[in-house]
Amino acid sequence: MRILVLIKQVPDTDRVKIDPSTGTMIREGLDVVINPLDLHALELAIQLKESHRAYITVLSMGPMSTEIVLRDALALGADRAILLSDPSFAGSDTWATSYTLCRAIEKLKIEYDLVICGEKATDGETGQVGVELGVLLNIPVLTYVSKFLSSDGECIVVQRATEDAYETWKVKLPALIAVLRSVSEPRLPTLSGKKGALSKRIEIYTAKDLEIPSDQTGLKGSPTRVVKVYNTKLSRNCKVYAGKELNEGIKKVVEILKDYKGSVVR
Amino acid sequence: MIGVINDRLDRNALELLSKANQMAQKINTQVALFLITDRSPETDLASDYADITVLLLSEIFERFSLYPFLVNLEAVVLKYKPDILLAPATTFGRTIMPALAAKLRTGLTADCTDLDVDTDGNLLQTRPAIGGNVMATIITPNHRPQMATVRPKSFSIESLKKKGKIRVEKPIFVQDNCELIGIEKRETTSKIEEAQVVISVGKGLRRKENTQIAERLAKILNGAVGATRAVVDVKWFSHDHQVGLSGKTVKPKVYIAAGISGAVQHIAGMQTSEIVIAINKDRYAPIFKVADIGLVSDAYSTLEQIAKLLEDEKDE
After folding, report:
1. Has the ipTM of the complex gone over 0.85?
2. Could you read off the pLDDT of A15-28 as tens digits, one per residue?
3. What is the reported pTM?
4. Domain of residue A52, CATH code
């Protein structure tokens, strides 16, 4: 089976610091990591490689620093790594990103039976690129995949989690699945894996290589525009109760809460 | 025309229709409900909220499957040509909308928490960005329809009495490319988005056993228990309970943050709560900045005290 895993590089938001004067995220000096949800997609691919013999291609679009995370993917068990990097790709929204990925897959004739992506990225949090790409590639798409049940090389069977049910779906390959965390438990890279990844080549392609016109990608090719970014009114006037005043505070809280006691519908 | 897409006439649809009507009045346009479902809807309710209800009714729409839904919705969207198209940010909306956006070659903003229109008819799509501590407003200037998915509970349901029309459209039958071979109804144990009181716990509870006090308090108040990502990661709670950017957004009457320091990602999921009560040992924890009442104390023993006092209260 040929598996294509979509990877995004994201800032390591666990260690995010906030600039107190502007209230925005300080991105400088932040490490880049594989989007944590993509690790579950990659792990599923590696498990399929172990059980079914698969060839794993990882594909990403981003600045040159994305090479670091693609090298991590190779260290974990990916066979081929492709990076789409070009200044003209910068500022792509979900439509422009999906279009660029689709063009690259077609132009580079990347072969796949199964495309796996994470539910969403932890920075943009849109979760739209996977679905849009699947539609542009004209293949079946299953989202919110919570479990991978089986594969016979022709079809796969997966479980999908919706608000009210777990559904079991069978789909003929090629297909795209967007997976939830529960689909796998990501492993850590081994030392030999890391060493092996050092000598592997990461293929890098530009807009010119892919023959993508500059008005179809990046900011220019994006239907959406950010027009305003502003701080939320985060702060409230907090009345703090500490030390001797604590009991007074607790009383106050109980006073508020007692209205909800045993209430079913209010 | 402002269109709302959903697979049932539920509170998510009514929230969006309420907001759509406010916006439609501003730019003097109509509101359409695109309803794709297997159940005959309450048409009176639909016509109260939409000028036109476009109904796609068939048993093939019993469970959502992308391909047949996409073919049918694309056809009605092309026929009715809405300028704006909204859907709830549910597993349904978050799957059908990107697919439609790809087909229609237009922009889509995910998970908006606020919407408005300007006098030029631009849909102002506002959502939390960069870790949730800033809001970004996004427009789709040159492509139509302008599309957005919207977090449930972002808008309140208004009482409307329009006298809209119902248009029944003939479904297009296509051979599905996916096959549903099993279905197991899911217990909805956690009703965290619906609860009036949410008691969320973080690492400050110290041990998993200690979180029982939050469950006890939730029982007394008929509320729900929320959790930070940190305690979901160590499996004190399932992901269903997670509040924050990669979990759920809640907007209860009262939100209690117990033993939670207040990472921006967590704050993004609870900051619109009406009253926020924070309990933390660290007087300088960021959670106090977004709280109305702060108790500087141990989360476990304080929750226990509160629970005891509430239990001792005489029932009215």
Report:
1. yes
2. 666 555 555 556 66
3. 0.85
4. 3.40.50.620
